[in-house]
Amino acid sequence: MFGWRARIGVLVPPGNPTVEPELYRMAPDGVSLHFARMQAPPAEGPAGGAAGMEERTRAYREGLDGPAQALGQVRPAVVVLAHTASSYALGVGQEQPLVDRLAKLGGAPALLAAHAVRDALQHLGVSRLALGTPYPESISRQGRAYWEASGFRIVGYHRLADVVDIYAESEERAYQLGRLADAPDAQAVLLSGTGLPTVAVLETLERDLGKPVISSNQACLWRALRLAGVRATVPGFGRLLREA
Questions:
Q1: Interatomic CA distance for residues 29 and 49, integer angstroms
Q2: 66 DSSP 8-state letter
Q3: Distance between CA atoms of residues 93 and 106, nearest Å
Q4: Is 165 in contact with 46 (CB distance < 8 Å)?
Q5: Strands of 188-191's sheet, edge to edge?
Q6: pLDDT per residue over 159-173, tens digit each?
């Protein structure tokens, strides 16, 4: 039987090609992953482009009912909303109605990507954070404000330049983003965004920077496993999963 340890349900933005392969790559034996794509009107240009990104983010939240209910049919142990910017748009302290709604629709405990990242940073004892984002300026500002309101001091920051489509970005660019965002007194580096391909470079970045590097997809899997009662160590994708 697939998912004999746990089944994890994941809601993904319709144009995001990154979440599934990254989670499949990291998932331990006995854990199955099940996906549903959120609903949104067609993008104005590339699916991961800056134009209309805030409107798409709102549409994802408003159109959760069908995809989340369908995902609930596989009886997941946890349902993950794999879209970090949804929390950035709502703001700290305004997300609980979304969590409650998602849990009711999916029939399982619900996890937001930003909450997974927050829990991972707290688990690692991080208070001084370097933040790297691939978003347009407006959403990057929301992200920085979100982490500051969550109690982290942003001591390093960089926004990836010249992003035409987040979903067309490369692991090499994610690596460079981590290097540029880092600061000497940062205790960890966060690469925000589930659409940015990151997991293949986490180990390399950690070795080169000498500190933990967290990404949205890595944190989502780590926290989902814990909520599902699976305490597996997964080497090759950063300290967070290696020392789980």
A1: 35
A2: H
A3: 22
A4: yes
A5: 153-159, 128-133, 188-191, 213-215
A6: 999 999 999 999 999
- The average pLDDT across 57-76 equals 92
In single-letter form, the type of residue at position 34 comes to H
Task: Determine the Cα–Cα distance for residues 193 and 191; give it in Å rounded to an integer.
Answer: 7
Alpha-carbon span 203 to 164, nearest angstrom: 27
Q: How far is CA 143 from the centre of its chain?
A: 12
* 80-121 pLDDT tens trace: 999 999 999 999 999 999 999 999 999 999 999 999 999 999
Q: Are 202 and 235 in contact (CB under 8 A)?
A: no
Q: Tell me the sheet residues that pair with 128.
A: 153
Contact 240, 220 (CB under 8 A): no
The angle that helices 19-26 and 216-227 make with each other, rounded to 10 degrees, is: 50
Residue 149 CA: distances (Å) to CA of 40, 93, 145, 200, 214: 28, 9, 6, 30, 19
Q: Identify the residue whose tokens are 């995001």.
A: 16
C-alpha–C-alpha distance, residues 68 and 74, integer Å: 11
Cβ-Cβ contacts under 8 Å for 94 (sequence gap 6 or more): none
Tokens at 118, concatenated: 């927050």
146, exposed or middle or buried, with CB in 10 Å at 0-12, 13-18, 19+?
A: buried
Q: pTM for the complete prediction?
A: 0.96
Map residue 134 onto helix, strand or coil.
coil
Pairwise CA distance, residues 188 & 212, whole Å: 5
Read off the pLDDT of residues 134-144 as tens digits, 9 standing for 90 and up.
Answer: 999 999 999 99
